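input
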Amino acid sequence: MKRLHSPIRRYLRLHAVVWLLLAASTASLELPAEQAARQYGGQSLVLYRDWTSMLAPLGQTDEMGKLKAVNQFINRRIRFADDFAIWQQSDYWASPLEMFAKGAGDCEDFAIAKYISLRSSGIEAAKLRLTYVKARIGGPDSNVSQAHMVLAYYPSPSAEPLVLDNLVTSILPASQRNDLTPVFSFNTEALWAGNTRSSVDRLTRWRQVMERMRKDGFVF
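output
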């Protein structure tokens, strides 16, 4: 059989690489078995069962329906508390199972759980970014802000994102959340600061919580 010309071979290799990258981005995240939740004790098993029951039918739901179902479940079923009250640490990023065990979480924990939920429902990673923001408090004329994290959903690469926030029930376009000033964003694929993209491995806490989730059986 004749060998393929070099340009054709290069094209096929490039096509294969692009296909693999797209597959990695669009493949659904797999959740761990129930036994992983059981070992955490507390409320973890009950919340895990309710969580997976909520997620089960979402494969047949449009993306806006998925956003609403996940945002409502996490916001209603998890109590907001700061890290020191929950973990006796100043800043701890919990996995969904860790958060379920406590029945409570900080803003990062809410955003992480929503990200994991939506990825497992079939929304590709490229459409989701955990976003670190400065949140203005005290009214529109206030100069006071505090660190906060939300989940942003991008219907398309150039679209205005929708914001999922544990402190606000409604899912709103970013233009209607002028109380939030983005600082950086990230997902399982990359880290963005402004227009600069870099490796997400720079985020130690994100890397650590990802490692714990993998040990529990999450497959990314």
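quick obs: The chain is about 40% helix and 20% strand.
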